Every structure is written in C-alpha cells, then in structure tokens.
Amino acid sequence: MNFLNPLLLLGILAAALPIIIHLINRRRAVRRPFPALDFLLRSQKKLARRLKLRQLLLLLLRVAALLLLALAMARPYLISDAGTTEADRMPVGVVFVVDDSASMGYGGGATWDKAVDAVEERLSGLRAWDRVGLVFAGAWPGGEPLGESPALLQLSDDPGDVREALAGHGPSERATDLVAGLRTAAEVLAGADMPRKRIILVTDGQKTGFDPQALPTGGLGAAVEILDVGQEGDRPNLAIVEAEALQQSTGARPEFEISATVQNFGAEDALGVEVRLSIDGAPIGAGLVDVPAGKTARKSFTHQFEGKGLHRARLELAEGADTLPVDNVRHLPIQLVQKIKVLLVNGDPRSVPYLDELYYLERALQPSKRSTSAVQAESTAVEGLAGRSFGDYDVVVMANVEKIPRASVAELTRFVKGGGGLLFVAGDMVKPELYNSLFAELLPKPVRSIKRLADRDDPDAPVKIARFGQIDRSHPVFKVFDLPGGETVHSVPVFSHLLLEPTVGDEARVLMSYGDGAPALIERSVGEGRVALLTTTIDRDWTDFPIRTAFLPLTRRLVQHLARRSGSGQSDSHAVGARVRLEVQPQDKGRVEVRDPEGGRIVLTPESSEDGAPLSFVAREAGHYKVVVTSELPGEEPREIEELAFAVNVAKDEADLTPLPASELLALLQGAGGEGAEGQADAATLDTPERRVGVWSILLFLVTMILLGETILGTRRSILIRLWNLARGRSAEPEI
Question: Mean pLDDT lowest for which of 284-288, 342-346, 402-406, 479-483?
Fold first, then answer.
C-alpha cells in the first residue's frame, strides 16, 4: 500500500489515548468489607462480566476508529492491473486510426472485416460521456484534402458516426502511411478539450507503411493502442511490380516487346502463374511463368501495332492467383514512337574510321540505311555541346569523354532527372578525379582508377586479361542472351577497365561483372531517368567486345532500356496516392483537364504562383488517365493530348506484406516520445502510467460505521429497550 500524505500517519499515535484512559479508569479502589452488600455483589457478578466485555468492545472500536481516521487522512492507494480508477471515470477523447490501404484487402477482405470488428468492440466499451473520431491511414500527400473520404476529423458524441463511416468504406488502392494517420489523429486530439486522450491504431502492421523518421519529435500527446488485425504467420502474395514496353522495330507495323515483372513475396515457389495481356481492351495473349520464393520473374509478349498513336496495355495475373488481387494488375500506355533519338558524344575522334571511338557503336545502332531499327543516332564532338539542348533526345552516350562544359553538365543533369537516359563509356580520356568532380550527381558509382591488365602483344595476355563473368539475366537488357549467339559475351577478352569505389546503401545495380567480381556494366536511377556506366570501351582499345556477336544486341537493348522516359507515355511509375505533375502550358483555345479511368474530371492546381509552373494533382485510383483540352467554343468536343497520357498503378511497396511486430512498433513510438495506454490480450500498447485505486474513502466509511457501532454499544441498556419497544409499537413504560 502507498500513501499520498504519509506524514499524516503520525495521527496513528492518537489510538493510544483510549487505552491510556482505560488503564487509568482501572485503578482499584480500597477494598472495605461490607457484609450487607455481599448478597447484592453476588447477584451482580453476571452483570459485571457482561459490562467488562462491553467496555472491551468499546475500547477496540475507539482505537480502530482513530487508527482508520489517521490512515484515511494519509490517503492510501493500491496499484492494480484492473478495476476502475479515478482517472477511468473521466471523459476520454478517442480517435481510431484505421489502415485502409490496399494491403487491408488481403484474404478476400477478411483483414478489413477483422479491422471493422475490432473497432466495433472498442466502441461498445466506451461510456456515454466519451467522444470519438476516425482517421484513415492511407497515404496522401501532406495537406491534401480527403475529398469524399468519410473520416471524422472532429470528435463526435455519437459512436454511431464511426460505425456509419466504416460501413460505407473499404480498402483503397493507395499505399500505407501509418505515421501520417497518427499525426492527423494527434492534431484532432490537440484541438479537443478532453482530460484524457487516446489513439487506437487498427492495422495489419505492414512494415513498409511505417517510417519512424517521420514521427514528430515531441511525441503524439496521447496514449497509443495498437490492434494488429493482420494474418498471423506467413503472408504469401504475388504481384506485378513492373511493366515495360520496348520497341523492337519501326515501319508500318512497329513491333514491341511488352513485359511484366512478377514478384513472389511468399516462402514457397509459385509455379505456372498465368500472365495475361490486353491492349485497348482486347485480349492479346497469355502465358505461364514460374516465380521462385522471394524472387521475381519476367513474362514477355511480342506484339505488332497497326499505325501510329497511343495504345493502352493492361497486364494482369489470372483471376484467383492469390488473395490480394489489387496488385495483380499493371497499366501501361504505349506511344508508337517511330524513332529513339540518341546523341553520341565522341570523346576521342580519329581520322581513321575503324579506329574512331564511335565506329562500332554507330553501326550497331544503325546497321544500314535500310534498317528498320528504332534507334536514330546523331554524333557530335565535345565542342558541339555548347548551347545544345539534350531535351531533343531520348538517350545521350558519353563515349570516352574527358570533360564537358559546366553548363552542359547542368543541362545533362536536368535532362536525366526529367526522364532521359545516359550512358557513360570508359576509355583513356577518362580521368577519375575529374570525372567524379564533374559527374558526381550522375555516376552510378565513383571511379577509383584504371586497371590495366595486359597489352595485346603481351605473350602472357591470355592469363592476365579479364573476361565478362556473371550477368543479371533478370534484367531486360540481357533477355536477348537467351538466344543463339548470346553466350559469346562470356568469352570477350578485356585488357583494361575502370575500377569503381565501393559504396554502401546506394541504388546502383550491377548488370554485368568481370570474372573477379568487379562491375563491368552498372545502372542507377537518377530522378525519373536512368544512368548506366560501361567500365570498358566500345572500340578495340581495351577489349574485343565490339567485334563479338553479343555487341550489337547488347548495345541496342541498352539504349532502348535507357530511352524510357516518364513523358513518353511508356512508364508505369505513377502510384496511387502520389502527386502527378504535368508540364503543360495553358492552351489558347481551351483549358487543360485530366480525366480519370472512370471518365471523371480532375482539377489541376499550379504548384506555385509563377507563370508556367507545373500543374499537379493526386491520383486516387489505378488505371489509364487522359489529358484533354476542353474548348471554350460551343459545339467543339474535348480533344485528347495523347503525348501526355499516363497510367497510375498500385505502389510496389504495398505488395510486400511483411509485418512489423506490434512490440517493435511500440518501441519505435516510445523512442519518439509517445505516451502510454493500457493493453489487452489482442492489443499491444505503450507502457502505461500507474493505475492507482484509492482506498481512503473506504476507510472513512469504516470509521463512520465504527462510530455508529460505538454509539449504540455505549448507550444504556434501558434506553435501548425503550427504543426497541417504541419500534415495535409498544408502550415505553413497563406494565404493572
């Protein structure tokens, strides 16, 4: 037992007073024999024994009353895991943060139903004087209005409002952002005048949906309770995480390779997964693919289009492939671009054609004037870059370039971040320190040095040189090496190559390496664009690669891969819940509008007050979007701008259902300054403050009852008899 006022326990000493008085009254008188009274004394012995017992009881009651009174004044309390405390009787402001992201549709909606049941259970436990609110934890950009979402951003006195909001809601297609939901709930409670505040987070605990760095440093200002409604154990899932279209030829019927990357997030191999392709709503084909556990697999389709224009592709897994169908679909707009424009920057031009840096690359990209290659190459020296805009090209190749003007570096950086492709090729002109200084923001990895293995005329060259070793066959560039002739890439001799600095935590991907593991071809995404680095040459100075069979398909596929741009319409990078930016200018004869997959109009908002600022909006559903110009003249139909068409898909991270244990989540919240709340068997909570159950009121009640008993016991027997007779309705006077 604990006490709020322990000093008042000194009042216990007062309990000694009745005992002292009792002892004083027990002093024996002088005994004097009086024979006349012997008879009366003997008759009173029985009454004396009764009186002695009565006095002892009075003594005990008076001592107990003083003891309990002193204890009550010290306000004792107990620590209890259950029961009702004084704080429990105070009104509580409760905000439910319900995860309504795409992953909550797992199990055919069973996870969402479990979440609704969990909220209902908590609602039934609220008192009439509590108030409730509701926030959804799907990811929307900061400050974006919730639109038609029925969230209750003000506390309500009626729990039925929460029930009604949940009844008309369900899992969305957007990604999880638990921190955003918690912050919104904290803001709702901050504006409420409630003595106690609590946040109840209802989620499947998806690990990718929680960013501890985004938590407010000052805490949430409320107790947090976590209801984990996710499936226990392994959560297998299949998803199409990427779709891509590569143009193979031009002409009247251009040919495209359309591929889907399927990822298996489960612990068991998925065999015979059916992937389907439809274009403009018409089924094109279907095929099976085996996806190993925890890995990806690609399924490709080849299709010839009729004529020019925009086509909308849909890649999807067969119905019933898994229990989370929302991520089994990928939308991809395909623009029938006649040519991929490539700018080749020659860093070491030669007068002898076959010794020139670009001799083999130019012929690989355009074998002949009658070729149907989709690549259109243009060559220039470094001097020709002055004042040139890279925006007119899809890919820029820096072939053995020593340096370029700083202004060109800045223009090249903007070009890549805007969606362009860039290929660095090594050679003797590359100076590592200068290269790292100029292209630090673009290089996949910093260059350390040039490793010279052997000269061509060295008799020991066969044992000194390096050869291409492991290649990433899952990458679209190396799909061609499943064809005859592709195996020659492993026999290519390399006499010199660049060594790269090792880096930790970057996004660079090694596509091809040498036998000793050093990178030969490496790629990294920069903004919306892609950058690749070939650490050997594309002429015969450092290698025989240009005269091998594999050179032509590899260089063409690499250029086609780098040519994908976000503005070309052949990107699936926009995610539901993300902000889509459109570089469009106001039209002279109308206004620009975006139409969602259902045909609804979307209001575009400028990102700044400056003229020509990008227009943007938040995509709220997956599918193909149109950009149209609505004329202000009567009678004219809206006109679609096909070049600006784009697709929106479910975020890739939402397919990874790996859970974050509630205990770890609570630890992260504690580290951010979260407050506590009590937990239950199916709920994880933060550490709670002490539940103090006060007992001093009970002690005061006992004192009152003791004093009442002492009063009754101390009253003369004759008076009690009279009161008893009166209570029975009889006369108080004795009968004669």
Answer: 479-483
Where residue 617 falls among pLDDT bands split at 50, 70, 90? confident
Residue 491 token pair = 């026999």
C-alpha to C-alpha distance for 151 and 185, rounded to whole angstroms: 11
> How many domains does the chain fold into?
5
* Residue ranges with strand state E in 359-429: 375-381, 395-399, 421-425
Whether 259 and 391 map to the same domain: the answer is: no
The pLDDT value given to residue 487: 56
Q: Are residues 404 and 490 in the same domain?
A: yes
In terms of domains, do 594 and 640 share one? yes
CA distance 687 to 678: 7
- The range of the structural domain enclosing residue 429 comes to 340-564
Residues 126 and 56 in one domain: no
CA distance 186 to 83: 27
Residue 162 lies in a domain: yes
> How many angstroms separate the CA atoms of 326 and 661, rounded?
24
Dihedral through CA 683, CA 686, CA 687, CA 691, nearest 10?
-60
Claim to verify: residue 310 and residue 423 sit in the same structural domain:
no
59 plus 7 within the same structural domain: yes
Average pLDDT value over all residues in the chain: 81
Last residue of a domain, one of 654, 680, 710: 654
CATH number (domain holding residue 482): 3.40.50.880
CB-based burial, 486-502: b 16+ in 10 Å, e otherwise? beebeebbbbbbbebee
For strands 282-291 and 223-228, give the pairing: unpaired
Buried b (16+ CB within 10 A) or exposed e, 643-677: ebbbbbbbbbbbbbbebbebeebbebbeebebbbb
The number of residues in the chain equals 736
pLDDT at 680: 36
3-state helix, strand, coil in the chain (%, to 5): 30, 30, 40
**3-class SS string, 94-161:** EEEEECCCHHHHCCCCHHHHHHHHHHHHHHHCCCCCCEEEEEECECCCCCCCCCCCCCEEEEECCCHH
632, 710: one domain: no
Q: Which of 522, 538, 564 is the last residue of a domain?
A: 564
Q: Is residue 215 a part of any domain in this protein?
A: no
Is there a single domain that holds both residue 229 and residue 248?
Answer: no
Measure the CA–CA gap between 442 and 413, rounded to whole angstroms.
Answer: 7
Contact 132, 160 (CB under 8 A): no
- State CA 239 to chain mean position distance: 17
Beta bridge partners of 139: none
Residues with Cβ < 8 Å from 563, sequence gap 6 or more?
340, 342, 394, 395, 421
Compute the distance between CA of residue 464 and CA of residue 442 in angstroms, rounded to an integer.
32
pLDDT at 566 over 50: no
* Within a domain: 685: no
Residue 307 has pLDDT above 90, yes or no: no
Beta-bridge partners for 131 = 93
Least confident of 44-58, 191-205, 232-246, 564-578: 564-578
pLDDT at 84 over 70: no
CATH number for position 193: 3.40.50.410
Query: ∠ CA 121-122-123 to the nearest 5 degrees?
Result: 90
115 within some domain:
yes
Confidence at 63, pLDDT banded by 50, 70, 90: confident
pLDDT(27) > 70: no
> Is the distance from CB of 243 to CB of 366 less than 8 angstroms?
no
- Read off the tokens for 525: 């995404």
Q: Where are the alpha helices (DSSP H) in 646-732?
A: 662-671, 696-714, 717-727
